[in-house]
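Sequence decides. Consider this:

===
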Amino acid sequence: MILLYHHLLPEDDDAGFSAEDGLTFRHSPEAFRFHLEELQRRGYRFGSLDQLVRQLDDGITEDDRSAFVTFDDGWRNQHEYALPILRALGISATFFVTTDHLRQGVSCAKRMGPAELRALVDAGMTIGSHTRTHPDLARLDETRLEDELRGSRQDLEDLLGKPVTLFAYPGGSLSARVVRAVRHAGYEAACCSFGPARNDATSLFWMYRDVISASMRSPRDRYRLSPLARQLLTFRVERRLRASLHRRA
């Protein structure tokens, strides 16, 4: 199971954010820590997304009791609140970040800058690309699409001095054309926002992810945390994926 997070913010702390910043997708630091500790208590084993990609590439299906942590968008609050918790629990995570402000050398109070990204890498975390400007990729022409995909990867590699091989689709927007462009841009795997479903070699470029509520007790949570339910209802996720892959701009 690949967990998907966005904002980590204390309750009632949303100063400086707007509706466009996706505060609907937020957890408190306490809820995040609860998730990780509760999953460990239930017997889940945390690993790195790089490890999962290698496993899937070798033809080994994702294990029912494996868990992987991912964050989208590169918000500064992820560095502030998630990193200390991850380090304390000995868990690695992958952070998919946008790069337009990095490329332009513009400091952004909301998003992580070079110092925060390097600190994540130094702590054993993985940085992946989330495009330069977070557009709807399925609506872009070929030139802009390549700039967002290949350009953001180059931005991060120039900054970090190491290969960037993982990608996440902004807003979960993808199509068959976009998937081909992601492959062509040199990425080894990509995450979507569909789930729950078990990942295998066929899903390397739309790896399924899950969003869990703060309490982990909702009907959706029980569905996502049940291996049997995930297996029986995979067809629903695959149907949504097929609709996106056949999407036309």
Q: What stands out?
A: The chain has a mean pLDDT of 95.
